[in-house]
Amino acid sequence: MASFQATDDPQTGAPDAVGGPREFLYLVAPQSCVPVPGSAPPVWRFSRWDYTWLSFSRCSSGDPQIDLPLLDSVFYGTHTLTWAAMHSIAA
Q: Is this prediction's pTM over 0.90?
Protein backbone atom coordinates (compact mmCIF):
# COMPACT_ATOMS: atom_id res chain seq x y z
CA MET A 1 0.00 0.00 0.00
CA ALA A 2 1.32 3.43 -0.94
CA SER A 3 1.72 6.25 1.51
CA PHE A 4 0.93 9.87 0.79
CA GLN A 5 3.46 11.68 2.93
CA ALA A 6 5.56 13.55 0.35
CA THR A 7 6.61 17.04 1.41
CA ASP A 8 8.71 19.90 0.10
CA ASP A 9 12.41 19.20 0.55
CA PRO A 10 13.47 20.72 3.91
CA GLN A 11 16.85 21.81 2.51
CA THR A 12 15.94 23.20 -0.91
CA GLY A 13 12.17 23.73 -0.72
CA ALA A 14 9.71 23.49 -3.61
CA PRO A 15 9.70 22.35 -6.32
CA ASP A 16 12.05 19.73 -4.85
CA ALA A 17 10.09 17.19 -2.83
CA VAL A 18 10.99 14.16 -0.73
CA GLY A 19 9.26 10.92 0.10
CA GLY A 20 9.98 7.46 1.43
CA PRO A 21 10.18 4.15 -0.44
CA ARG A 22 6.42 3.56 -0.09
CA GLU A 23 5.48 7.02 -1.39
CA PHE A 24 2.97 6.88 -4.24
CA LEU A 25 5.16 8.68 -6.81
CA TYR A 26 8.12 6.41 -6.08
CA LEU A 27 5.95 3.33 -6.58
CA VAL A 28 4.38 4.46 -9.88
CA ALA A 29 7.27 6.46 -11.35
CA PRO A 30 10.56 5.38 -9.76
CA GLN A 31 12.54 6.77 -12.70
CA SER A 32 11.46 10.26 -11.59
CA CYS A 33 12.98 9.78 -8.14
CA VAL A 34 16.60 10.15 -7.02
CA PRO A 35 17.86 8.65 -3.74
CA VAL A 36 19.08 11.11 -1.12
CA PRO A 37 22.63 9.99 -0.27
CA GLY A 38 23.11 8.88 3.33
CA SER A 39 19.44 9.08 4.26
CA ALA A 40 18.26 6.63 6.89
CA PRO A 41 15.55 5.53 6.55
CA PRO A 42 15.82 5.83 2.75
CA VAL A 43 14.37 8.99 1.22
CA TRP A 44 13.95 9.89 -2.45
CA ARG A 45 13.92 13.35 -4.02
CA PHE A 46 11.65 14.21 -6.94
CA SER A 47 10.09 17.23 -8.60
CA ARG A 48 6.85 18.50 -7.11
CA TRP A 49 5.75 19.26 -10.68
CA ASP A 50 5.91 15.55 -11.55
CA TYR A 51 3.54 14.87 -8.66
CA THR A 52 1.27 17.73 -9.76
CA TRP A 53 1.15 16.44 -13.33
CA LEU A 54 0.34 12.95 -12.08
CA SER A 55 -2.42 14.32 -9.84
CA PHE A 56 -4.03 16.21 -12.71
CA SER A 57 -3.78 13.12 -14.90
CA ARG A 58 -5.48 10.95 -12.30
CA CYS A 59 -8.40 13.34 -11.75
CA SER A 60 -9.22 13.56 -15.45
CA SER A 61 -11.71 11.14 -16.96
CA GLY A 62 -11.63 12.67 -20.42
CA ASP A 63 -15.19 13.95 -20.01
CA PRO A 64 -15.18 17.72 -19.30
CA GLN A 65 -18.68 17.55 -17.78
CA ILE A 66 -17.41 15.17 -15.09
CA ASP A 67 -13.92 16.66 -14.63
CA LEU A 68 -14.89 20.24 -13.77
CA PRO A 69 -16.59 19.52 -10.43
CA LEU A 70 -13.72 17.22 -9.40
CA LEU A 71 -11.08 19.80 -10.30
CA ASP A 72 -13.04 22.48 -8.43
CA SER A 73 -12.95 20.32 -5.30
CA VAL A 74 -9.13 20.03 -5.30
CA PHE A 75 -7.91 23.17 -7.07
CA TYR A 76 -6.33 25.74 -4.78
CA GLY A 77 -5.73 29.31 -5.85
CA THR A 78 -5.00 30.04 -9.48
CA HIS A 79 -2.37 27.49 -10.49
CA THR A 80 -1.52 25.65 -7.29
CA LEU A 81 -2.43 22.29 -5.84
CA THR A 82 -1.70 21.88 -2.15
CA TRP A 83 0.05 18.72 -0.97
CA ALA A 84 -3.20 17.71 0.72
CA ALA A 85 -5.06 18.05 -2.59
CA MET A 86 -2.43 16.10 -4.52
CA HIS A 87 -2.37 13.34 -1.90
CA SER A 88 -6.18 13.22 -1.95
CA ILE A 89 -6.25 12.83 -5.73
CA ALA A 90 -3.55 10.16 -5.75
CA ALA A 91 -5.30 8.29 -2.91
A: no
